[in-house]
């Protein structure tokens, strides 16, 4: 899997707004919360969104694909015609591909992920979804003082393919002017 990810460019898609407005930036170990860092430096929005797509992708798996040729994966041959499921989320956490893959790291340098698919199966709406998420997170960080989830973790959709919170109820201490 790691080799396949390295050879693909991560061009990708949509469904970001609902599942990723980013108060729950899990696993971060920075001294300051990523939203505080974003308030101080809005250019970090691109990195945060890309790392969110890697760490918590909106599409977890792609079911029911068919091998069009025999393929070998780690010494096991999957015969032509076999039904397979692609677990994109697992590829995004592959420790052979991403150093410290279980950690959310907005400073990660090599961030080609499968968050919106890959190749001819990339999400057509990816550029718009990325921009929407970057703008939303930047405004959230800029305008809200001490935003936090009411429920952590939030309730997730009961869907194995499209994972993400059903909603993100938040509370905050103050609202800054536009």
Describe the structure.
This protein is α+β, with helices and mostly antiparallel strands and 178 residues long. Helices cover 29% and strands 13% of the residues. It is built from six helices and eight strands. It has helices at 2-7, 16-19, 34-40, 44-55, 88-92, 126-143, and strands spanning 62-66, 71-73, 76-78, 83-86, 144-145, 148-149, 170-171, 174-175. The strands form four sheets. It has a two-stranded antiparallel ribbon with strand order 1-4. It has a two-stranded antiparallel ribbon with strand order 2-3. Strand 2 and strand 3 (76-78) form a beta hairpin. The longest helix has 18 residues, at 126-143. The relative contact order is 0.26. The model is unreliable at 1-22 (pLDDT under 50).
Could you give a short description of this structure?
Helix content is 29%, strand content 13%.
